[in-house]
Specification:
four-stranded antiparallel beta sheet, 40 strands, about 50% strand, about 450 residues, mainly beta, about 0% helix, elongated, single chain
């Protein structure tokens, strides 16, 4: 049965590595691949090796405040940075900052496909940016209750979606003529129960309703899909701070109690299993890397974590399909340059499957059984295989060292120098060059073997 999945490696970056602060409230990756981390004491730019820090105390980088709450790319080398004292527009090329002090409190920004920014910071109005005059204009829009908003997002059709704490979703068509903007009300979506949490990622919106069910809403197709009931996780861990989807799995950050993965499984009765990832702090934000298979995690006090995702496939081939009866465990595996699969067993010798194919698996017609009765193999307990720079394959056994000659297609023994006793219990082999071989044994230590002869 093939099983596709992902294995994770983790890397941490905190104040010990140069971050201005280890509490990371916002993460943004710009179109050039640079990572921007908004901390509780300054803005950090990470190029993969070095970190550059922006603070209001730095005369060359006059941010309006040190507490960074949000970061959004504005296109053309610009970033919008929300601080505790205002909204800053950073020109990355000119290294200049322009501050808009009217946005000095909590607000909800959204950026369109053409990188126009719209902001809601009070009831019944939407502010939009005039690029020509570098100023904001406010437009009166009915039915918006600021304290009721959970999240806002703009889709590819320039529809502004406003998700609120009740079951309604306010939708406005944005019509922009020059620098004049109009918002036309359109009622497109309503959920059956009230929303508790809401987060967007591209064309997808992930929300949890008051029955603690997690849903995925595809804005392009206007389709809602139920994902998982999170009642147990919310009861134990509390408030959700962020949610993203990576491949077919979902990652849910909790504001004060770590990160949970909903791992998809191939089971008719169970679609996801819950895994707790090893981050023992509050989670502020989650971001998927644009260019790598990496998840960036902003934490409350532990800096930024990078989760590297390694894809893999597991496929099971049963030895019962072999024409040879195997009753002992497998101890060594190797696929050689001819794509032959070598299987070393503890007591049954070697099985060689010619031209092994992962998809077709083991076939009877291409299987060869090599043992002490039909070859020069020293012992039927085989613990190690190792490739060589010569046309041969090293074989480590209970009673010593053999090799398989690809030229002669037979197993041969190593002749030891006069007075030298054979090395036994070989479990690992490493060829350094044509004359030096290192072997690791059980009970006899690590042995350096100097080779002679040709071929």
């Amino acid at each position: 049965i093939p099983v596709n999945g992902w294995g994770y490696r983790r890397r941490q970056c905190s104040s010990r590595n140069g971050l201005s602060n280890s509490a990371i409230q916002a993460i943004c990756q710009d179109s050039e691949g640079f990572m921007w981390f908004g901390s509780c004491d300054g803005l950090n730019c990470f190029d993969g090796l070095n970190i550059e820090v922006y603070k209001p105390t730095d005369e060359s980088n006059l941010l309006s405040g040190n507490l960074i709450e949000n970061i959004i790319e504005a296109g053309d080398g610009f970033l919008w940075v929300q601080t505790n004292y205002g909204l800053d527009l950073i020109d990355k090329k000119k290294k200049t900052i322009r501050t808009y002090n009217e946005f000095n409190s909590r607000n909800y920004p959204a950026v369109s496909e053409r990188k126009d920014i719209y902001i809601i910071y009070e009831d019944n109005s939407i502010s939009y940016f005039d690029r020509e005059n570098l100023s904001f204009h406010k437009k009166q829009v009915d039915a918006i209750s600021f304290d009721n908003i959970l999240d806002i997002v703009i889709d590819k059709q320039d529809l502004l979606w406003i998700f609120t704490r009740d079951s309604k979703c306010l939708t406005y068509q944005i019509e922009r003529v020059g620098e004049h903007v109009h918002f036309i009300r359109r009622d497109l979506y309503q959920h059956q129960t009230n929303f508790l949490y809401c987060f967007h990622e591209g064309r997808f919106v992930y929300f949890v309703d008051d029955t603690y069910n997690l849903y995925e809403l595809n804005l392009d197709q206007m389709k809602t899909m139920h994902i998982f009931n999170l009642s147990q996780q919310i009861r134990i861990k509390g408030e959700i701070s962020s949610t993203i989807r990576h491949h077919n799995d979902f990652y849910i950050g909790f504001k004060s109690s770590g990160l949970v993965q909903l791992k998809e499984v191939n089971n008719r009765h169970l679609r996801f299993v819950v895994n707790e990832l090893d981050i023992h702090s509050g989670i502020f934000c989650l971001v998927k890397d644009r260019y790598q298979d990496v998840i960036w995690v902003g934490t409350d006090g532990q800096g930024v974590f990078m989760y590297y995702v390694d894809s893999f496939t597991l496929r099971s081939n049963s030895l019962s399909s072999l024409p040879i009866q195997i009753s002992n465990p497998v101890r060594a595996l190797l696929i050689d340059d001819f794509n032959d699969l070598w299987i070393g067993t503890k007591g049954d010798g070697i099985i060689c499957i010619k031209e092994y194919n992962l998809n077709t698996g083991i076939t009877r017609r291409k299987t060869e059984h090599l043992h002490t009765g039909n070859t020069s193999l020293l012992d039927n307990s085989v613990y190690a295989f190792s490739k060589s720079g010569r046309p041969l394959l090293w074989i480590g056994t209970e009673e010593g060292l053999n090799y398989y000659s690809f030229k002669n297609r037979e197993i041969k023994r190593i002749r030891t120098a006069e007075g030298e006793r054979p090395v036994r219990y070989i479990h690992s082999i490493c060829e350094i060059n044509d004359v030096v071989l290192w072997v690791a044994t059980v009970g006899e230590g690590i042995v350096k073997i100097t080779l002679g002869g040709t071929g």
